[in-house]
Amino acid sequence: MRPGGKESRARVVSLVPSLTEAVAVTAPGLLVGATDWCEHPADLDVVRVGGTKNPDVTAVTELRPDLVIANEEENRAPDLAALRAAGVEVLVTEVRTLDQAFRELERVLRACGVRHRPRWLDEAEAAWAAVETPDPPLTAVVPIWRRPWMVLGRDTFAGDLLARLGVRHLYADHAERYPRVPLDDLRASGADLVVLPDEPYRFTRDDGPEAFPGTAAALLSGRHLTWYGPSLAEAPGVLARALRAAHR
């Protein structure tokens, strides 16, 4: 038992790359398993248990975790149900805004038995609190996939970050969170910018901007736009510089 009577979580499996990094940086040694997509920190040495959408449930249970941490968007409900049926405790997060991300990060760390608030979390909150939203905002379409084209829609974490940086994406009120939109419609939207992150689809200078002739293209780090963890501390600066460079 830790001081104060709270039991520490000795064995944790993460099915979310953002949360993997948050736990690994804050409490090295707690994680015993993570997905194949958990690339940060670079030296993470744990058992790999498959992808976020197709984890090997048997491999997870064989690690005898005290806790599995997951996310309602990144992980599939049937996999989480199978883990619970096997007797594994599963904590499921929901992150659709920056404020919610901060709350959920604190909840995950507490559930893992972490008693101290990590410095990176204070730095991230301070960095975003210091952001001054430009006015008037730029308008943008934000593809996240092509073949077919899909864009950010309503109620997304990435959309909230962009709004705080002065970018209003034009499908923010769409009925779907990640709608499929024909390329001709995106081109005709009148957006100031097309914002192209490098995940989940890896847009590059040679793969993406050519589809939007005459529209400025901002190539953004997907890790800074879509991850909620230690990268949040530097995200405002990284994203703002890329947006400014595209709209000069």
What does this structure look like?
The chain has 248 residues and is of the alpha/beta class. The chain has helices spanning 17-26, 57-62, 77-85, 98-111, 119-129, 157-164, 183-187, 222-226, 235-246; strands at 12-14, 31-34, 47-48, 67-71, 90-93, 138-141, 143-145, 150-151, 167-169, 193-197, 216-220. The strands form 3 sheets. Strands 3-2-1-4-5 form a 5-stranded parallel sheet, with helices on both faces. Strands 9-6-10-11 form a 4-stranded parallel sheet. It is globular and about 55 Å long. The termini are far apart. Residues 1-7 have low confidence and may be disordered.
Question: Could you give a short description of this structure?
Answer:
32% of the residues lie in helices and 16% in strands.
Task: Output the keywords.
9 helices; 248 residues; 5-stranded parallel beta sheet; alpha/beta; 4-stranded parallel beta sheet; disordered N terminus
The helix/strand class is alpha/beta
Strand order of the largest sheet: 3-2-1-4-5
The CA-CA distance between the termini, in Å, is 56 Å
Order of helices and strands: EHEEHEHEHHEEEHEHEEHH
The percent of residues in helical segments reads: 25-40%
How much is the average pLDDT?
94
Radius of gyration, whole Å: 19 Å
Q: Based on CA inertia axes, which overall geometry fits?
A: globular
Task: Give a quick account of the main beta sheet: strands, pairing sense, barrel closure.
Answer: 5 strands, parallel
